[in-house]
Amino acid sequence: MSDPPLVVDDVSVTLGGREVVSNVSLTADRGELVGLIGPNGAGKTTLLRAIRGGVPTTAGEIAVTGQSVSSLSARAIGRRVATVPQETELSFGFSVEQAVAMGRHAHIGRFGTPDETDREAVADALARTSLESLVDRPVTDLSGGERQRVLLARALAQATPVLLLDEPTASLDINHAIRTLETIRSVVDDGTAAVAAIHDLDLAARYCDRLILLADGDVVAAGDPDTVLTSETLADAFDATAVVSQDAVTDTPRVTALPDESASTSDEA
Amino acid sequence: MRVRQRAVTWSLGLTAVLAVAVTLSAGIGPVRIPPATVVKILLNAVSLPAGIELTPLSVAGALQLPLPTLQWQSAVAYPVDQTAETIVMRVRLPRILLAATVGFALAAAGTVMQGFFRNPMADPSIIGVSSGAAVGAVAAIVVPAAIPFGLGLRGAAFLGAVITAFVVYLIATEGGRTPVATLLLAGVAIQAFLGAVIAALQLYSGEGLRAVVHWLMGHLGNAGWDDVTITLLIVPVLFGVLLAYARDLNVLLLGEEAAAGLGVEVERTKRLLLAVSAVLTAAAVAVSGVIGFVGLIVPHMLRLVVGPDHRVLLPAAALGGASFLVITDTVARAGATEIPVGIVTAALGAPFFLYLLRSREVHAL
Asked: Which residues cross the membrane (chain B) (predicted)?
């Protein structure tokens, strides 16, 4: 069996003199969705940026499809790693189709034009994200949920072995959040290796195969959602009191955060 | 319609508009020449390679090598009035072609700068190119002795423009990164500083003041075939480079972070776009002075019509800028006394742009 498409080995990142990510290791295999969870400022976004070569690492090694990210050109990385950003500038009145087609940039040569493969990838991405009816609409006219879908479609059009998602559901209502995660799940099940920073712990537990809990740049816990999401690890990472129960419907861990004074009662629950 | 088809269709259409504008413009002036005569004169001027002739070339005295040379020959020879032919070929056509080339260069550079800065107020002179050219030109008029190497007015303007752009770039760059916001502010600061230098030079310009003001207002008169040839050699090559980066420019509009994620070598692409636009602008400004408005408004006009995709927009804006400057310069010289073309570009361009702005559903830039 070959190496996983994404291997992060003992990576540290320093930004502005502060170590934001400390000795983090993780892998994502084909068909695997790895969730990055943790409080604000834990280093989730920085780790994702480091994986796609956006920030230099101070220690460790990141390999994508067997090749060190630091040795690859931006174009080569663009063919291996796609990112769904938290938000992006979608101005300038490009149509939905044009915006999604930009995902093919790294696949088209400087003097080339989109070929059949490019058009199929764009059509497939639009179909997966149910954007077909909006192809000619200017992105500036879209709602927040639709814009998020455009960003996801753009990343899917990139057709990369590794997919990174930074809070893909942060600005979405619960219905759109579930639809987005279902789409991501189906893409991952088709063989993509994905790492997603997700705020919502319940959704992370429900959709991710494995979770990595970060706090202050360190890995606090890693593994199955059941083992990562415990009262102890959450108290450690979030400095908050939380009860973890089993959701009756989805049969996945459910986290209920409590105010500090109820800590004693929660222990009995 | 596919992008390439749209780009070709718009380019052909706007080239046709430009051809009509050039033909009509060549007939307008103190001596009216009917368009049909202009067309005949232009066709007479077209030379075609008639064949290859081998001329013997002596090498080292004894050996003779055959040297192939192209034989040029006029394709047609319509009988036309000799005076009209001289007016068109010697006086009007160089000026018209220079207007077309300058308009083409300014509009192309303006389109790239607006995309590059993601700012609708950006224009070709935003990083101080025009101010630098003005300092060079004004210095050449006021203190010609200060200009080294016998560069002359145009050389001094070109050099001033390129040096200024490079200085602004150096000021704004730290650790291999050039944030566009820093670049913008550095450009504004340098422009203000050079504005002071120009004002001071004007104050002590004495008899050169008229020439200084004339240059600063922008002008296309006194254009000769030399100017046309030089700009025609520089502009198309640089434009070709920009066109090759049109798709990168689209992706850069998403922001640098997103562009990097999509596979754009951001800093390298920015450096290249900046350098090419600066030289393109410098070449235009050096021969024509500071003609405002073309590089700011023409890209917006075309963006409203053809949309934001630079693969279509860039050639459309460049060709539109060429026609725009040919038409405005014709207006500028058509009256009893010639008015500086910069006044006409603003006076005609602004109302037309406002009309477009109101008559179409306008999205954010």
From this structure: 96-117, 129-149, 156-172, 184-204, 225-246, 272-298, 339-357
Contacts B255 to A, Cβ<8 Å: 88-89
Long-range contacts made by residues B196-203, C-beta under 8 angstroms, separation at least 24? B197/B135, B198/B131, B198/B134, B198/B135, B198/B138, B201/B135, B201/B138, B201/B139, B201/B142, B201/B143, B202/B138, B202/B142
Chain B residues lying within 8 Å of A153, measured CB to CB: none
Residue among A102, A107, A118, A166 with most chain B CBs within 10 A, to mutate: A102
Going from N- to C-terminal start, the domains of chain A cover 1-80+160-237, 90-159
Per-residue pLDDT tens over the stretch A207-226: 999 999 999 989 988 999 88
pLDDT exceeds 80 at position B52: no
Residues 2-61 of B with CB under 8 A from A: 2-4
ipTM for the assembly? 0.83
Rounded CA separation B296/B294 (Å): 5
A102 with B118: Cβ contact below 8 A? no
Q: Do A140 and B4 touch (CB under 8 A)?
A: no
CATH assignment of A1-80+160-237? 3.40.50.300
Tokens of B253: 């509009």
Cβ distance of A89 and B258 shorter than 8 Å: yes
The one-character DSSP state at B89 is I
Residue that has been written with the tokens 């405002």 in this structure: B292
Residue of B254, B256, B302, B365 best to disrupt the A interface, most CBs of A under 10 A: B254
- Alpha-carbon span B141 to B183, nearest angstrom: 30
CB-based contact (8 Å) between A16 and chain B?
no
Q: What is the pLDDT of residues B219-273, one digit of tens each?
A: 888 778 888 998 999 999 999 999 999 999 999 988 888 899 899 999 999 999 9
Q: Nearest by CB to B244, from A76, A90, A111: name it.
A: A111
Q: Where are the domains of chain B?
A: 3-29+90-359
What is the average pLDDT score of chain B? 87
Calpha distance B293→B351 (Å, rounded): 12
The reported pLDDT for the residue numbered A269 is 40
Decide: B157 and B136 in contact? Cβ < 8 Å: yes
pLDDT at residue A257 is higher than 70? yes
Cβ–Cβ gap B265/A73 under 8 Å: yes
A92/B365 Cβ within 8 A: yes
Q: Which residue, among B112, B129, B116, B94, has the nearest Cα to B292 in the 3D structure?
A: B129
- Here the tokens at position A250 are 């989805």
Asked: is B3-29+90-359 a CATH 1.10.10.10 domain? The reply is: no
CA–CA dist A257, B80 (Å, integer) = 92
